[in-house]
Automatic annotation (TrEMBL), chains A, B, C:
The keyword Transmembrane applies. The keyword Transmembrane helix applies. Keywords: Cell membrane, Membrane, Transmembrane, Transmembrane helix. This is Trimeric intracellular cation channel family protein. It is a multi-pass membrane protein. Residues 9-83, 95-168 form the Glycine transporter domain. Coiled coil: none annotated.
Length: 215, 215, 215
């Protein structure tokens, strides 16, 4: 694989898999097929859109590649007709989201590296590309944002992978190899959290607030 | 009407009518007059702002036309002093929103056509311009986003109108006429849904989740 | 102080203090240290990012100043280890947010003035820079947005300060002095509201809706 091919490939994969999670959220909200397409597209391209806006790229990645919208729409149609086959759509969302995170973080970091920004911004763009599609999906879909799930590695998984990419490139590893490592680190941290309960100490000074109006 | 006048006119109308819905949400939240202006402006210009950012236009449409902010502020003042005259402010929001959707979708599609993007992106920009102002209004105002209302044509109405515009232009209809048809399609689908119960089949595999924390 | 130094200084202060409020929201959600960094950064740079996108500046302010991300991360670490020392973290958030608002509004207005936009847009950019970081923090953090708190001057404080800046510059006051006045007006209005109950008349036609699904 040529180095120039990896990042677009990761971007495509992230768009597709995030689109599946968006369509699954639409299924939880019992929307119609166009609602599925809306959520699939919003989730699939959301993170990369915010990244491209922040990096001030000449064009948002999907505006010049409209086939990406067809891809997210196809993912929506697929889910609309097959989601009932899965016992727990929520578990499916969580695992597809984990996979999408694992490809979106290196995609975002790779595009930031191409843009020539500082390592701190590379890490930030990896995290933004990885987390914002799901964040927009959850906020619009009235779900609890995954970034708020206590005792799980989520932002931390994205952050760990993005830092790994920057460090490995810093010590001389070829960029494509470092980006693949980055994705593996994200997946390992996220899967370890979901399967083995890996977590970082959380802040715990008093019981969580009961609800948003109780203060 | 010259072709060059229609799109700005639609944009103005969309800003004004969405602003009215934003002010009505502010009335439901019992805010003060400045809160009304905030919500009216956010809702009035939200969709077009996201569209202009994605299309990477030289300037966001309202930055060069500050009178639009005065328009949304005027709408807010009007609603602040008259909203109590209406029996159901929620019904009023729904119908004004339907009208705003019907002018915002062709406005967004028209601007995307001027930008020369592909038909798929034209449809996406119609939907974004139509739905995002109301989406931002509902998320910030702590209302259930209209895109989540089950069994109603909302995104579907926007989508149907935008597709109609692209198809009609594709078969040779003059652009302004096609955009007017686009708006009529949006309004017909939305009104048919609200008055006659038109809907597409929705996904229905199991009862909806009870609340966002119950998983 | 040279005139050219004031605006960056206000921007730095706003980023730092908003970051503290973001980390405190992360503490209320009982996140881990990376979750604190995520919320601190999102809140610290959110308002200025939206402002820079709307003004179409060549680069988002923090992309060229990655030390700002280190600043928000440092704020997060500080809060992670000290938040338990405060009796009411919510009161602390409210007051830090008030201070951040008081520096972010003049920072946003100052940058808009440098961009040469019309006075109406200067006011809008002051309000956006002041309120959007906290708005994003509250929406993502599942808190009730401060813009919805009834009977408090919040958007109104930001608006009052921004209008004061534009008027004072319009009558010939040197820009840096006017921006300092702007910040004092914001703080006076917000503090007066919190301590003395200052408010504007709110819209009150019927009791507030019980919840977002009850219509």
């Amino acid at each position: 694989m040529t180095p120039g091919l990896l990042v677009p490939l990761l971007d495509y994969a992230a768009v597709l898999v995030f689109a599946l999670t968006g369509a699954l959220v639409a299924s939880r909200a019992q929307l119609d097929l166009v609602g599925f397409i809306f959520f699939a597209t919003l989730t699939g391209i959301g993170g990369g859109t915010v990244r491209d806006l922040i990096l001030n790229r000449d064009a948002i990645f999907w505006v010049g590649q409209p086939e990406l919208i067809l891809l997210t729409s196809g993912a929506a149609v697929l889910v609309f007709f097959t989601a009932h086959l899965f016992e727990s759509r929520y578990r499916l969302i969580v695992w597809l989201d984990a996979f999408a995170l694992s490809v979106a973080v290196p995609a975002g970091a790779g595009i930031a590296l191409q843009a020539g920004v500082s390592p701190v911004v590379v890490v930030a763009m990896g995290v933004v590309t990885g987390t914002f599609g799901g964040l927009i999906r959850d906020v619009v879909g009235n779900e609890l944002p995954m970034v708020l799930k206590q005792g799980e590695l989520y932002v931390t998984a994205a952050f760990g992978g993005a830092v790994a990419a920057v460090v490995l490139i810093g010590v001389g590893m070829p960029r494509p190899v470092a980006l693949i490592f980055c994705g593996l680190v994200v997946m390992a941290l996220r899967a370890g959290s979901l399967l083995l309960g890996w977590s970082l100490p959380t802040y715990r000074a008093r019981p969580p607030r009961a609800d948003k109006n109780n203060r």
